[in-house]
Specification:
alpha/beta; 26% helix; two-stranded antiparallel sheet; 202 residues; six-stranded mixed β-sheet
Length: 202
């Protein structure tokens, strides 16, 4: 653990991480569906975040049934035995046998990550897709040291699918990889994602 001091959520950890004299209260929740073809990307994401943050500040949230969550845990635990893996709904219903089967959607997945981050008392919260990861410390310092209290970065080719100028509506293709940053006060003021829109909405 870079820095050599005990890491506790909500407290400052001294050390060379991020090139700062002190590591602010930062944590990340990485969301995934746990599909087999996404596991290599998820592994890369966890590995990249682990070069910047202690593993205790990283969690993976899985929108899938118990077998999928178990598969994700098994794949990642070999390199990261202390990594937190949470099935969507698990924080509300700890008994996995009572969790609803199937996927609950993007909003529920992100809200699970937000609940974990909020419960750890961190000031700077990152929500990351499983196919997105930081290439260096500047990916975090730009947000943490900046003046914005929240931001959303999307990668991929943006493409207008259809537009209706007279109605003021446009439809764009899906982004390929999303990183969201917010400070604790934003979550307190706005709340999380709206799960009423269903599995495909957020």
């Amino acid at each position: 653990r870079a820095g050599g001091t005990e890491d506790r959520f909500g407290e400052v950890m001294t050390g060379p991480l991020l090139g700062m004299a002190q590591l602010p209260s930062i944590a990340v929740a990485i969301s995934t569906t746990g599909d087999a073809h996404r596991l290599p990307y998820l592994s890369e994401s966890v590995k990249a975040w682990a070069t910047l943050l202690p593993i205790e500040r990283i969690a993976v949230t899985v929108d899938g049934d118990n077998s999928v969550a178990e598969l994700v845990t098994n794949v990642l635990s070999a390199e990261h035995p202390d990594l937190t893996v949470i099935r969507v709904g698990q924080l509300v219903t700890p008994d996995p046998t009572k969790l609803r089967e199937g996927r609950l959607g993007v909003a529920a997945n992100k809200n699970t990550g937000l609940a974990w981050l909020h419960g750890r008392g961190v000031e700077h919260m990152f929500l990351c897709d499983d196919d997105t990861w930081p290439l260096g410390a500047e990916a975090l310092t730009l947000h943490v040291a900046g003046h914005l209290s929240h931001s959303l970065v999307c990668w991929g080719r943006s493409r207008l699918l259809q537009g209706s100028p007279e109605r003021g509506v446009a439809s764009w293709s899906w982004p390929r990889g999303v990183l969201m940053y917010l400070r604790r006060e934003v979550l307190g003021a706005v709340g999380g994602f709206v799960e009423a829109f269903g599995p495909g909405g957020h």
